[in-house]
Amino acid sequence: MAVRLLGPVELTGPSGNAVLSGVRQRALVGALAFNAGRSVPSARLVDALWGAEPPRTAFKTLHGHVARLRRVLHACGSPDLLVTSGSGYLLAASRDDVDGLRFEDIVAAARADLAENRLARAVERFRDGLALWRGDPVQDGELFGWGEAEVHRLQEVRLTAVEDLCDAELRLGRHGSVVAEAERVLVDHPLRERMVELLMQACYRSGRPAEALGAYRRLRVRLADELGADPSADLQRLHTAILRQDVAVEDAAREDAPRPQMPRPAQLPPRVGHFTGRREQMRALDEALDGASDAPIVVVSGAGGMGKTAVVVQWAHTVRDRFPDGQLFLDLRGHDDRLAMTPAAAIVHALRSLGVPESWLPGDREEQMGLLRSHLDGRSVLIVLDNAASSDQVLPFVPASPTSALVVTSRRAMAALTTYHSVCAVQLGAMSGEESLALLRAVVGAPRIDRERSDAATVARLCAGLPLALRIVAAKLLHRPELTFGELAAELSGVDRLGVLDIEGDARGVRAVLASAYRTLSEPAAALFRRLGVQPELGFDPHLAAAVGGGDQTEALAELVGAHLIAAVGGGRYRFHDLIGVYARECVDDSRDETVTRLLDWYLGIADAANRSQPSTYDRVTPELTYPPAQLPFGGAGPAGLSRRRAAQPAAGDPFRRGRGARCRRLAAGLPAQRLLQHARAVDGPHRAVPPRPDGGAAGR
């Protein structure tokens, strides 16, 4: 998709050019494209389209414009380019797709070439970038507020790029070209002092000193008439040097100008309120900092909503005095592939935070990494990278100096990072029941907890130790004094448990956080996640995963573990966190019927194999399976080799009500009641002993 803003607004998709209609629709495209890849709130779009005094129907009209723009995008072959994101909209385009953003990237690379004295390359890049301009930005749209300011900013970037181009050409001795370009710019912008300076130098070096002095006189008169000001000191010195026929004096003065002092970054966010528990993880972070021989590298991983950022920020504030040269904090936005910060963008962000001027930034990524290491060398800086998605985002920030430290938070374990460096891994799991109650007590208040202690414990249990869920229910209780813990527990026990764990006006509810983790999965892992949501238990093994997934699921299971959407609990088994299990059931799609059939056939296969392993004097029932198990969980060891597996009843109840009575009756008939009891004892072994009935009755009932 190509989005052109530098002139009349144009959109070109796989099916051709989009047919845009109306000033407002073009302005909407411009406002979204200025922020390509980032969500723009509706209120901000209203400001850009109508300014400080929008009509009362502005939001409704905006939604209408968005709907029409989506139809236009669909017609040109880009139906997914405009997406709803939170309370606003996002244009899912890269910087390379938008000419205005690509222009700025090209100019940044050209300035890096200029700083490294690669003059010919700089000239080529400046000309490539300037060639993208076909007129004023969003020429056929009308923007207000920040949108109008963005247009003016882009125009200023263009003028500065022209000045930098003239500077490079001047150094290459192309004086005539500079004279022509400078005179064209000064027709419309006669008060740009740097352009007058470049024109004066070019005229003088072309053997035209009178024209150089004339350019100075014109500027001086205009400044005096319009602003009551004099030319800058630099221009006055250049004027004097030309009078003395000595331009080299000005060149030397510019080269000897002192470089700006590097600032001390202090970017840590404020600590989260009512921080509770996590002593073990805080101690692990302290030990990693104290025990490292090289620069400490720590990765704090866990599922979304576990409070990784809160833990790291809390700890970072306790050790910030040990890093006198500052603290860098970057949100890499790895929870959403559409918004994730690229490694190159992250490096540039860090360099700017360290005070590196724009003109010093090289265009090559390797050179940027080298510059970053140079600025960190010998300094004591704490670097916190929040929401990392991959080791590629992290590797450029590994400090070479042992006096600095790097701490990363991620929903993934970042195993690839350990291939290159010594990493301390800190995993963040669910809070204990005691910690959960302590957090509720801190937010809601001890008297209220003490009055409803039993119901408060129930609410804490239904939040399953997820700090985000606990904070949301605490906020509900705090802002709704009439709501009791018992009423809240009843809501959490209802059909929409995750809906209760959303909070009005905040897009970071539990469901949204889990959805952002689910969206990053590959299709095989996402499909397995949905299918596992059908089976009724939170725990399962690889054999059951293979049964519902239709084949070996080793890679998909590893990906789900790496994304902290399931946990490996030992003995070759896996388990959903309670709330993630609820979300998995919400994600079940139209493959549900097939998955239920696979699940029932799996249990039928187990029951049949277990039945045949025992001597019998009655006629066995031979099940007819659509999806026979490829491998039984007990292999050649017989049913006693199973561990932690319940008898077949969990799978039978719900499908029986959904038209699978025949399969469920076969499942019940697969083993007589007393034999089913024996097998249940053998299956569960020491983990889940099945007690005998006092009346000798059959457990199968």
Automatic annotation (TrEMBL):
<dbReference type="InterPro" id="IPR016032">
    <property type="entry name" value="Sig_transdc_resp-reg_C-effctor"/>
</dbReference>
<dbReference type="Pfam" id="PF00486">
    <property type="entry name" value="Trans_reg_C"/>
</dbReference>
<dbReference type="Pfam" id="PF03704">
    <property type="entry name" value="BTAD"/>
</dbReference>
<dbReference type="InterPro" id="IPR005158">
    <property type="entry name" value="BTAD"/>
</dbReference>
<dbReference type="GO" id="GO:0006355">
    <property type="term" value="P:regulation of DNA-templated transcription"/>
</dbReference>
<dbReference type="GO" id="GO:0000160">
    <property type="term" value="P:phosphorelay signal transduction system"/>
</dbReference>
<comment type="similarity">
    <text>Belongs to the AfsR/DnrI/RedD regulatory family.</text>
</comment>
<keyword id="KW-0238">DNA-binding</keyword>
<dbReference type="InterPro" id="IPR036388">
    <property type="entry name" value="WH-like_DNA-bd_sf"/>
</dbReference>
<feature type="region of interest" description="Disordered">
    <location>
        <begin position="635"/>
        <end position="658"/>
    </location>
</feature>
<dbReference type="InterPro" id="IPR051677">
    <property type="entry name" value="AfsR-DnrI-RedD_regulator"/>
</dbReference>
<protein>
    <submittedName>
        <fullName>DNA-binding SARP family transcriptional activator</fullName>
    </submittedName>
</protein>
<dbReference type="InterPro" id="IPR011990">
    <property type="entry name" value="TPR-like_helical_dom_sf"/>
</dbReference>
<feature type="DNA-binding region" description="OmpR/PhoB-type">
    <location>
        <begin position="1"/>
        <end position="93"/>
    </location>
</feature>
<feature type="domain" description="OmpR/PhoB-type">
    <location>
        <begin position="1"/>
        <end position="93"/>
    </location>
</feature>
<dbReference type="Pfam" id="PF13191">
    <property type="entry name" value="AAA_16"/>
</dbReference>
<keyword id="KW-0805">Transcription regulation</keyword>
<dbReference type="InterPro" id="IPR027417">
    <property type="entry name" value="P-loop_NTPase"/>
</dbReference>
<dbReference type="InterPro" id="IPR001867">
    <property type="entry name" value="OmpR/PhoB-type_DNA-bd"/>
</dbReference>
<keyword id="KW-0804">Transcription</keyword>
<dbReference type="GO" id="GO:0003677">
    <property type="term" value="F:DNA binding"/>
</dbReference>
<dbReference type="GO" id="GO:0043531">
    <property type="term" value="F:ADP binding"/>
</dbReference>
<feature type="region of interest" description="Disordered">
    <location>
        <begin position="679"/>
        <end position="701"/>
    </location>
</feature>
<dbReference type="InterPro" id="IPR041664">
    <property type="entry name" value="AAA_16"/>
</dbReference>
